[in-house]
UniProtKB/TrEMBL annotation, chain A:
<keyword id="KW-0479">Metal-binding</keyword>
<comment type="similarity">
    <text>Belongs to the SIMIBI class G3E GTPase family. HypB/HupM subfamily.</text>
</comment>
<keyword id="KW-0547">Nucleotide-binding</keyword>
<keyword id="KW-0378">Hydrolase</keyword>
<keyword id="KW-0862">Zinc</keyword>
<feature type="domain" description="CobW/HypB/UreG nucleotide-binding">
    <location>
        <begin position="57"/>
        <end position="217"/>
    </location>
</feature>
<dbReference type="InterPro" id="IPR004392">
    <property type="entry name" value="Hyd_mat_HypB"/>
</dbReference>
<dbReference type="GO" id="GO:0051604">
    <property type="term" value="P:protein maturation"/>
</dbReference>
<dbReference type="GO" id="GO:0003924">
    <property type="term" value="F:GTPase activity"/>
</dbReference>
TrEMBL record, chain B:
<protein>
    <recommendedName>
        <fullName>Hydrogenase maturation factor HypA</fullName>
    </recommendedName>
</protein>
<comment type="similarity">
    <text>Belongs to the HypA/HybF family.</text>
</comment>
<dbReference type="GO" id="GO:0008270">
    <property type="term" value="F:zinc ion binding"/>
</dbReference>
<feature type="binding site">
    <location>
        <position position="73"/>
    </location>
    <ligand>
        <name>Zn(2+)</name>
    </ligand>
</feature>
<feature type="binding site">
    <location>
        <position position="89"/>
    </location>
    <ligand>
        <name>Zn(2+)</name>
    </ligand>
</feature>
<dbReference type="InterPro" id="IPR000688">
    <property type="entry name" value="HypA/HybF"/>
</dbReference>
<keyword id="KW-0479">Metal-binding</keyword>
<keyword id="KW-0862">Zinc</keyword>
<feature type="binding site">
    <location>
        <position position="92"/>
    </location>
    <ligand>
        <name>Zn(2+)</name>
    </ligand>
</feature>
Length: 268, 116
């Protein structure tokens, strides 16, 4: 079945789209994002972050790619340099939030039940129970899922997509929506590269470039503390950029989202 | 699956539009969905009866316009069609392209009636 390429708009059903409007019927042109409500809430969340000078970063990946492990290593290294807090999204359990709290950093767990992604309303509820005052970086660990989280703006400034070397280097080609959404890509668990003979980081990068993405790719191992400095420097740079923006009354959205509706509304 | 939540968001928007126009029923809902939107058109169609039940959109026809992926090349300027996971220029093969269509997730238009 071919659901996405447009080939099921056949000459047979095409006229239907342009059917003349009958008497008694009003046609209303809308052209709004289906997730307009979520997007409005995301704008509001971003205002909260900006008014407190906080940099908000959304981490997305498949389940178990090492999001929480990366956060733990980041907190260990940077908790004296920056004030950090974490919003954790999971289907069930407080485990990830407990792991973060054990590091001495505030964490709010959102359990989504059956929802496979966080949305801007859930994040709003969580952020009002966090001390945004005096915070530098807020990490939002999204639900482990390479599909749904990419579609929901949470109000974050940057998206990070993690890819662990045990998942296969063709993931960017299989999940283009997710990898296109990344402002930076983190290749995790690189300590295992020596025992995996079929993961080629260059091939993974080529698939990313073929998505017309120039997102930087950082290779690291949270477990073995390899390559973390590049990630820390990226964070420092982003925080610096966020402070500059805040001083100028500007904000930033993850790079995927600005064009959207404006860029290509085709005529109805 | 987030298509149900997307569909519920759609119904809320449609309900508001119907209310603004004092409509009693929605006859047609037209969407534009691209392959890079992150929602699957066929799953939206499946979720629609569930999300619309008991609302003004209950008997509406959902029409989904599936848009192609198109890119504009920043090297040679060509506008070409591309595969969702290979957004390279169809003319010169460069990957420095800008998406000009294919990530839409839009409510395009609705048709309303005052008769229920
Ligand atoms: N070898 C190795 N294992 C790692 C590394 N980082 C994480 N892991 C392991 O991978 C597993 C999953 O790590 P998590 O940090 O819980 O992954 P996650 O992405 O937060 O998982 P979810 O929140 O469930 O989606 C754990 O057993 C970690 O110990 C790494 O750098 N090297
Ligand atoms: Zn986790
Ligand atoms: Zn608020
Ligand atoms: Zn989903
Ligand atoms: Zn070209």
């Amino acid at each position: 079945m071919c659901n996405t390429c447009g080939c099921n708009i056949t000459p047979g059903n095409k006229h239907f789209a342009y059917k003349p409007v009958e008497g008694g019927t009003t046609a209303v042109s809308v052209l709004k994002n289906l997730l307009a409500k979520n997007d409005d809430q995301a704008v509001h969340n971003r205002q909260h972050f900006d008014s407190h000078g906080v940099l908000a970063i959304n981490l997305m990946s498949s389940p178990g790619s090492g999001k929480t492990a990366l956060l733990e290593a980041t907190i260990d290294a940077l908790k004296h340099e920056f004030r950090i807090a974490v919003i954790e999204g999971d289907l069930e359990t407080e485990n990830d939030a407990d792991r973060i709290r054990a590091k001495g950093v505030p964490a709010i767990q959102i359990t989504t039940g059956s929802a496979c992604h966080l949305d801007a309303h859930m994040v709003h509820d969580a952020l009002h129970s966090l001390p945004l005052e005096g915070l530098d970086i807020l990490f939002i660990e999204n639900v482990g899922n390479l599909v749904c989280p990419a579609s929901f703006d949470l109000g974050q400034h940057r998206n990070i997509t993690l890819l662990s070397v045990t998942e296969g280097d063709d993931k960017p080609a299989k999940y283009p929506v997710m990898f296109r959404a990344a402002d930076a890509i983190v290749l995790t668990k690189t300590d295992l590269l020596s025992v995996l003979d079929d993961f080629d980081p260059q091939r993974a990068e080529r698939f990313v470039r073929e998505l017309a993405s120039n997102a930087p790719m950082m290779h690291l191992s949270a477990r073995k503390q390899i390559g973390l400095d590049v990630w820390f420097d990226w964070l420092r740079q982003e925080l610096h950029a966020q402070r500059d923006r805040v001083n100028q009354g500007k904000t930033a959205r993850p790079k995927i989202q600005p064009e959207g509706v404006q860029l290509h509304v085709s005529t109805v | 699956m987030h298509e149900l939540s997307v569909c519920q968001a759609l119904i809320i928007q449609v309900q508001e539009i119907a209310k603004q126009h004092d409509a009693l029923a929605v006859k047609l809902i037209k969407l534009q969905i691209g392959p890079l939107s992150g929602v699957e058109a066929s799953l939206l169609e499946n979720a629609f009866p569930l999300a619309s039940a008991g609302t003004v959109a209950e008997n509406a026809v959902l029409y989904i316009d599936r848009l192609p992926v198109r890119v504009r090349c920043q090297q040679c300027g060509a506008e070409t069609e591309a595969a969702a996971n290979r957004l390279i220029c169809g003319q010169c093969g460069d990957y420095h392209t800008q998406l000009i269509s294919g990530d839409e997730m839009l409510l395009a238009s609705v048709e309303l009636t005052k008769e229920s």
